[in-house]
Structure formats: C-alpha cells, structure tokens
Design goal:
Layout (H helix, E strand, L loop, with lengths): L7 E5 L4 H5 L5 E5 L8 H13 L4 E4 L2 H6 L4 E4 L17 E6 L2 H9 L4 E4 L13 H9 L5 E5 L17 E4 L1 H5 L4
Parallel strand pairs: 1-2, 1-8, 2-3, 3-4, 4-5, 5-6, 6-7, 7-8
C-alpha cells in the first residue's frame, strides 16, 4: 500500500483551529513549536478537527506522541540526527524530514524518511544563507526520495518552483499572508 504524500504543507506554531479553516483543503499541517511543551489534550482536539476537515496533520520531533495519537505522521527537523528514530512505524504513517545540505540529507535517508524538505530555497528573514535554484536542483538530485521546497517562498517567487523537479512545497509566512494559496 502506497502512502499518500501531500504536495503543500503549512507550518504552524499554535494549535489554532480557526486558522486552518481558512486554508485551502489540500494544505497539510505541521505543528512545530520547540519553545512550548507539547499539550496532549490540545493535540487531540486539533487532530480531531483536522480529521473532520480531511486535512493531514503532522507533529514535529515527537514520533512516539504522533503514533500514540494516531496522527498522520511526524516531521524530523534537520537538527535531529538520532538513528533508530522511529521503531514500529504504523501503516500509513508518514515520516517527513528536513535537510540543508548533503550530509543532513543522507542522515534523513538513514532515518527512513518518506519525503525530504530541502531548505532554504530562497532568502528568508531568519537567514541570509539559501540554496537558490541551481544548488537546490543539485541537492535534490542526490536523493530518490520525494522532495519538498521550503524557505523564503513568497507569492512573487512561487512560480519559480515550477523550474524544479519536486513533489511540492512548504511554508510558514506564505500562508500567513495568503491563506488561499
């Protein structure tokens, strides 16, 4: 059985149900907040809302919690380099991972990710280092995994990702300003 891998992802830091109501139906949600402790009750409620709206929901960096709560999967950030990160992976449980360079990409492959987020594609507010189109292409050619573009995506550069042979894209700020994208 083949796992469905969404094409568009929105990173969120708050479990705000109202926020996701305004997103297009095909946008998957990744909850990533490394500043707060995970609130299980809020995760359960948010997951119910996602299921009701037929929206995929992933939790960053806590695979055991994601599995226990029957979420759609887990997102492994680039800084997490643990081996044997997930044991007893459920059927239809997606493992997403991010990488910024070739060594991190190879670590994500060893961690058994189904899909790799390569970042940052474009210049971002948080970093002046970015891959750019040519380096992104080179790096994405180093894996057979599906690739998702992440970082610096804006409405005015979204067309440029069509130049890449990728599965999809992910963003934070793009959706904050343009929920209908």
């Amino acid at each position: 059985m083949k796992i469905h891998i969404p094409k568009i992802y929105c990173f969120i830091e708050d479990l705000n149900k109202d926020y996701i109501h305004n997103l297009k139906k095909d946008v998957a949600i990744i909850y990533r907040n490394y500043k707060k402790q995970v609130n299980i009750k809020k995760l359960i409620d948010f997951n119910k809302e996602c299921k009701k709206r037929k929206r995929y929901f992933y939790l960053a960096n806590y695979p055991k919690i994601a599995i226990r709560l029957a979420l759609d999967g887990v997102y492994i950030p680039s800084f997490n380099k643990k081996k044997n990160f997930i044991t007893n992976k459920p059927i239809n449980f997606l493992i997403l991972g991010s990488a910024h360079n070739l060594p991190e990409l190879k670590i994500k492959e060893k961690q058994g990710v189904d899909c790799i987020f390569l970042a940052p594609l474009f210049l971002t507010k948080k970093s002046n280092k970015f891959l750019g189109i040519n380096n992104f292409k080179k790096l994405s050619n180093e894996t057979k995994k599906k690739v998702i573009a992440l970082g610096g995506l804006k409405k005015n550069n979204l067309d440029k990702i069509k130049l890449l042979n990728i599965h999809g894209y992910a963003s934070i700020s793009l959706f904050e300003k343009n929920l209908s994208i």
